[in-house]
Amino acid sequence: MTSSERNTSACILPFIELNIGTGGTASPCCALSRLITSDHRMMSVYNDTIESIWNSSDLRSIRERMHASEKLLECQICYDQEAGNGASVRTYHNTAWEHGYLNSSKATVDDVMCRAQETDYHVPTGPERLVLKVNNVCNLRCRMCDGNSSSSIAQDAVHSSWMPSHVQPTRWIGQLMKIGPSFFTGVTQGGDLDDWAQSFHDEKILSLDDAVVRRSAFLHSPLPPEASLVRIDLHSVGVNDKPFLTIHLDEIVVSEGIVEEGKNQFSITIPEECKLRENITISFDTDNPITIDQVCLERASSKNQFTGKNIPSGLAWYKDRSFIKNQLFNSSTNLTKVNVMGGEPTLIKDVRFMLGELIATGKARSMNLGVTTNATKCDDEWLESLGSFKAVMVALSVDGYRDINSYIRFGANWNAIEASIDRYKGLSNAYVYCHMTVQAYNMMHVIPLVEFCQAKGIDIQFYQLDDPRMLSILTMPRPARELASAKISSYLFRNSAVNYATSPAGKQLMAVRDALDSAYERSDSKHLERFKAFTMELDADRGQSFSGVNAELASYL
Question: What pTM does this model have?
Answer without folding.
Answer: 0.81
